[in-house]
Batch of 2 targets.
Target 1
Amino acid sequence: MSATTAENAVAIRPSAVSRYDIISTMRSEWVKLRTLRSTLWSLLALAVLGVGIGALVSAAKASHFQRHHIGLSAASFDPTRISLSGVLLAQLAIGVLGALSITAEYATGTIFSTFSAVPRRHLVVVAKVIVFGLVALVASEVTCFVSFFIGQAILSGSAPYATLATPGALRAVVAGGLYLAVLGLLALGIGVIVRHTAAAITIFVTILLILPLILQALPTSYINAIGKYLPANIGIVLLSNTSGANSVAFSHMFSPWVGFAILCIYAVVALGAGIVLTVRRDA
């Protein structure tokens, strides 16, 4: 009898494990993310801040440029960056969503059910990264492209404006969406590490907004040496058309794609540390 039971256990074990593959786990994570109330509000905030602030700044710049037209200002005028100004606030919305996508489960205790259903905890985190990353990327790219088109429509006729065919413009718009998506993954990684919503958001805001303010109190040499590694400064370069006259302003910064690679390293390190901690510690 015991031998039969053992044989049945051996026969059942593979099928039980096979249920928890990456695809089925991703489906589960998609359902959770889609039904999380904060997802809708965070994505709405992302769109409103990204598009709305960009439109307001574009309107203000167009009005100012028309009244104070100077040759030098026209040469340094960056319509691409102006239309994407809202991204600098929208990054807070995507960061909050990234943190909540994991910390909400710890807050409600549903993480215990998740780990019971999927004992391979690293699989849960990987599935969250893939699902959230895709949602964040699509939402961020749509926001950046809409912001660009609306901003340029407002600028046209009153100030210099850009199109996607303008050198550097398409790169900046696409990079803006990538920047937001990776920031969201960084916040997700922080959330996996600390497992607490308020703490994760505080750390994220500190890295994004507080550190640049602290850096301003240091000598210029330190600002130039350290500032180029900060995510916020990397984002400014990514959102700007760094070709032509604007390249001088970013001479002490990393090039757009080098800075983006560094930002990706931050996210990978945070997520990697989170996976290791998730596997090793109690839920």
Target 2
Amino acid sequence: MNGFYPEGWNVGNKKYCYTLSQLSEAKNLKTVLESPVTMCDAAHNLVVDLGCIKGVIPRAEGAIGISDGTTRDIALISRVGKPVCFIIDNIETDKNGNPFALLSRKKAQELCRNSIMNSSHSGDIVEAKITHLESFGAFCDIGCGNIALLPIDSISVSRISHPKDRFYVGENIRAVIKSIADDGKITLSHKELLGTWEENAGMFTAGQTVTGVIRSVENYGIFVEITPNLAGLAEPRQNVAAGQQASVYIKSIIPEKMKIKLIIIDSFGSGYSPEIKYFYKGDSITEWDYSPSDCSKHIFTKFCG
């Protein structure tokens, strides 16, 4: 997205080794670099290993909002051992004559945020990294540590009880910008990239027995997810619970009713989740209709653009 990526998107906690000439050029061009944090000192300054010299991110430059208190210091402490993005403010020498670099993560974040606000729109697809999971949604780094919210009901068509049923912290995903508020808060969506009902149902045929996850148990039947954007209804069965893995027989696939009828063969264990598959490969999306054309019910999303 506009040349900015989540922290650690490409390198994980791999050490970046820069030369002094590379660092000097990056300083002059205000190029955003990345390298892991090795320490957070008692004053909450971050120390970054640049390979040839040490880099220091002063506390006030550690993140947007640190100076005014809207971002807590735990946001700095938690970066130890992880990559951070930054620009180089200056290259100086310490009292022993050794060179070190003064860095700013905050300014890298501001460059990324300004780029998003000026050139990104609803419907644009971004690379994101899961940073935190709450019951109501997943928080995602969409560039240089800038965080956006992916609400739980926008994660997939198949309903989940908690985002941890779909994601793990540190996971790289793709997402769609749903809205950008005037104050810079960004909301994401995800389900539109996981395919329509027909695209998902096309991976299966009646008569197959496949693996799924029991998502809810109702009096009239049991909902079993067989891909993140596709769940079917199984006949009632005793001694099953939400979250269990299940082997299910596909009894019938009915596009005009957008239904898949299943029979649970067995249920066991927990912790399994179907693999995420991205059907949509473009850079932006204007609208998405999940439902088959001959189905009376429609699940539809329109992005503002």
